Amino acid sequence: MTLKKYQTLIILITLNSALLMGQQERKPVSTLKVTTLSTMLANTKGIGEWGYAALIEVDGKKILFDTGARPETVLNNARELGVDLSDVEDVFLSHNHWDHTGGLLTLREALKKSNPNALSRIHVGEGIFSKRVNSDNPLLATKEALEKDNVEFIVYSGQRELFPGVWITGPIKRIHDERNWSGNGKIETEEGAIEDTIPEDQSLVIDTANGYVLISGCGHAGLVNTLEHIHTNIGAEEVSTIIGGFHLVQASDKQLSWTAGKLKDFGVSKIMGSHCTGINALYS
What we know:
By secondary structure, this protein is α/β, with parallel strands linked by helices. It has helices spanning 3-20, 73-81, 98-101, 104-111, 138-148, 223-233, 253-265, 279-283, and strands spanning 32-38, 53-58, 61-65, 90-92, 121-125, 132-133, 152-156, 160-163, 166-168, 186-189, 192-195, 204-208, 211-216, 239-244, 270-273. The protein contains 8 helices and 15 strands. Strand 14, helix 7 and strand 15 form a beta-alpha-beta unit.
């Protein structure tokens, strides 16, 4: 065997091994801009609320990440900030809660006047439409209304590359017992009511030259579980930056210390926490 053929064989074996391990070929994006449109605080423009939404602009494509709590918040904040949402056709919903889905119907009605395809593709995790016991799932009625308006819901059971370098995690395996949810909710199943762990919780991952950027709505699956999922199923690169809500507002000092240690292990160097992250978590 010639040296050239031998080198080729090594390369092929390496690539095949990476695929077998769940790793994907990297496609780093060239440009990334994240504009927060709903969170706890606002400065001289816009209004704050208990909710989350952000516009993700990556290599000429736009994704609306969650839609805030109150119907008008994201729409009004975008206008005040001079952000054009009329050409956004993809919406990513991290989970079913009202503080992340409240603006969806209003935004679709307002934006389709300029673009009939505005917010016409909505990316959700499997389990998001489960019937909740003793509490409304706000997305059930919203789904029915939007589907009549030619809006498509795309349901994910695992990770998927939405655009080159832009990954949807899909629902995340709970390896560590982070329990980033209230514990009060129940889901109705054929076998009876079970604990609502917000099983559909998912995040976005952007591959950049400086490492992965994680964007999270609430992180109900657990921030560390999410990082483990990325490392196992998307790629072994460092997650350099985490943005969004991480539901650590009620975490104990012990949990915060453990989480901080894990973040270092994954190479996290920039944290832009908002919404349900909590001040103590950011300064621990």
